[in-house]
Write a structure and sequence with these properties.
Largest sheet: 5 strands, mixed
Number of strands: 7
Shape: elongated
Order of helices and strands: HHHEEEHEHEHEHE
CATH topology of the largest domain: Dna Topoisomerase Vi A Subunit, Chain: A, domain 2
Number of domains: 2
CATH class of the largest domain: Alpha Beta
Low-confidence stretches: none
């Protein structure tokens, strides 16, 4: 007796399994949910994926995700242009924006240094950050990388590049547990971390 197989369903499950933290059971549930959609809903879902993939790119200034040439933060004239907060990825920007405590600019590294995993300085948006520091506008750079070994190493590496430029370099005052990611912290903890930042 042959094994029961539905090739298109198996392919769909395999696609969902490529997502981070998605195992076979969860991938199967997601695939079954897609099958329960109407044709119109399924087309809308696939169009949203293709549209996001085609139209979202990095802001030419801060390297955050945007669907325009310059992201809404960089384009906001009311922001304090003398402070740049350096974060690992776009999710950290979203987390910090929720606090409503920070009204300056961001720079998204799109990762952290991890030589063992092949992530060297040239793989991060470091040259873009340094390019923003050349006209005396920026007076302070806040290192808001996560409190992990890689995050700390990245903050120290960047501070050694920035301090000789005469720019103040600070680190978030982590009322955050060591090893915690910014995106999972609550607004009060992040607000305290911003206001209590210290010099590196």
């Amino acid at each position: 007796m042959g094994e029961y197989r539905v090739a298109p369903l198996e392919m769909l499950i395999e696609q969902f399994e490529q997502f981070p933290s998605i195992g076979h059971k969860t991938a199967s549930r997601l695939a079954y949910h897609v099958l329960s959609m109407s044709e119109e809903q399924a087309q809308g879902f696939s169009k949203a994926i293709i549209n996001a993939h085609r139209n979202i790119h990095h802001c030419r200034i801060c390297c955050n995700l945007t669907d325009t040439e310059i992201c809404s933060v960089c384009g906001d004239e009311s922001r304090d242009k003398s402070i740049i907060c350096v974060v690992e990825d776009f999710r950290d920007v979203i987390a910090l924006e929720k606090t409503r405590e920070f009204n300056a600019l961001y720079h998204v590294l799109n990762g952290v240094l991890s030589p063992l995993n092949g992530v060297t300085p040239d793989k991060l948006c470091i040259k873009e950050l340094l390019a923003r520091l050349g006209d005396d506008t920026v007076k302070e750079v806040i290192m808001a990388t996560n409190a992990t070994v890689e995050g700390e190493a990245t903050a120290m590496y960047l501070s050694k590049l920035i301090k000789p430029l005469g720019i103040k370099v600070t680190r978030l005052a982590y009322g955050l547990p060591i090893g915690a990611d910014l995106e999972y912290a609550d607004e009060v903890t992040l607000s305290r971390a911003i206001s209590g930042r210290s010099n590196i």
